[in-house]
Amino acid sequence: MTYGVNLFFLQFSTFIQGLFAGQLLVGGIFTNFMLITVLGFIALKLFISFSLYETPLVPTRLQSIYEFFYGFILQTVCDQTGSKVGEKFMPAYLTLFFTVLSANVIALFPYTYSITSQLIVTFTISFFAFAAINVVGFLHHGVYLFGMLLPKGCPLAIVPAIVIIETVSYVFRVVSLALRIFANILSGHCMLKIVTIFVWFVFALGGVGFLVHGFSLAVVVMINVLECAVAAIQAYVFTILCSVYTNDVLHCGH
Fold first, then answer.
1. Of 49, 79, 154, 238, which is the most exposed, with the fewest CB atoms less than 10 Å away?
2. What are the structural domain ranges in the chain?
3. Could you list the pLDDT tens digit for every one of the 254 residues in the chain?
4. Residue ranges in the chain assigned as alpha helix (H)
5. CA 164, CA 104: separation in Å to the nearest integer?
6. Burial class of residue 196 in the structure, from the number of CB atoms within 10 Å of its CB (0-12 exposed, 13-18 middle, 19+ buried)
7. How would DSSP label each residue in 105-143?
8. Alpha-carbon span 121 to 97, nearest angstrom
9. Is 25 helix (H, G, I), strand (E, B) or coil?
10. What per-residue string of b and e applies to 157-167 under the rule 16 or more CB within 10 Å gives b?
11. Coil, strand or helix at 56
12. Ramachandran region, residue 21 (left: φ > 0; alpha: ψ -120 to 50; beta: rest)
């Protein structure tokens, strides 16, 4: 019983120790975090390469999957930013979507490492995406981009307070982007691991445990399916929010 309790809490202590860094694999620099990142980019490269290898008139299954994602993201981005801007920045949005999606999906395989459940990773992706969006805004508006921090028709007496509030709200978008993926992926993996450990203990009990083992195993399968959906939804939400933020800086949105 004591061993089971210690095993249950081991997952949390291990998580806390490795919150911002993976375990070392080779020497003092190459970690499992780096390994999964490289594997994710290789898998993404192979998927796109094989999808667009020949592009026959009748698309292959991989090409159909790629075209579905491409059309879906293009339509979503164009709805947020307009067709002209959406098509112009489509390569960046599609790359962002596939990068986050591949990182989420590869973490669902056994004995891999979830890089998007690490806050430093999601914050880094959010920071560079948000920085690129603001660079686009400065290229279009220059210093007049700061005008989006002050709504039109605002009374002069409350201008300082409004500017401070809008600035904090605007900068906090980076944190919200990072926390959204981090919290959803981490909570999903924690729930999956806890339920899996529970199923293992139920199976180990024998007797009555065998009767509920099948039901418990079905719950684990359903959670895995749910996690697949969460992986795709979070990549989509991240992409659509970036397109909304792009539209804001292009139109100094308010």
1. 49
2. 2-251
3. 454 445 444 444 444 444 444 555 555 566 777 778 888 888 888 888 888 877 677 778 888 888 888 888 888 888 888 878 778 888 889 888 998 998 888 888 877 778 888 888 888 889 999 999 889 888 887 777 777 777 777 777 777 887 888 888 888 889 998 998 888 888 888 888 887 777 777 777 666 666 666 777 777 788 888 888 888 999 999 999 998 888 888 877 55
4. 2-17, 32-51, 61-81, 83-106, 119-141, 159-205, 208-251
5. 35
6. middle
7. HHTTSTT---GGGSHHHHHHHHHHHHHHHHHHHHHHHGG
8. 15
9. strand
10. eeeeeeeeebe
11. coil
12. beta
CB of 86 closer than 8 Å to CB of 78 = yes
Tokens of 195: 């339920």
Task: Check if the beta carbon of residue 219 is closer than 8 Å to that of residue 212.
Answer: no
Tokens standing for 163? 């500017």
Inter-residue long-range contacts of 37-43, CB under 8 Å, 24+ positions, other chains counted: 37/103, 37/115, 39/106, 40/99, 40/102, 40/103, 40/106, 40/115, 41/102, 43/102, 43/106
CA distance 239 to 177: 10
Measured from the Cβ of residue 83, the count of other Cβ atoms closer than 10 Å reads 12
Tokens of 155: 């009374």
Distance of alpha carbon 234 from alpha carbon 101, whole angstroms: 8
Q: Cα dist. 134→38, 79, 176 in Å?
A: 28, 20, 16
* φ, ψ (nearest 5 deg) of residue 181: -70, -45
d(CA 232, CA 213): 29
Q: Are 113 and 36 within 8 A, CB to CB?
A: yes
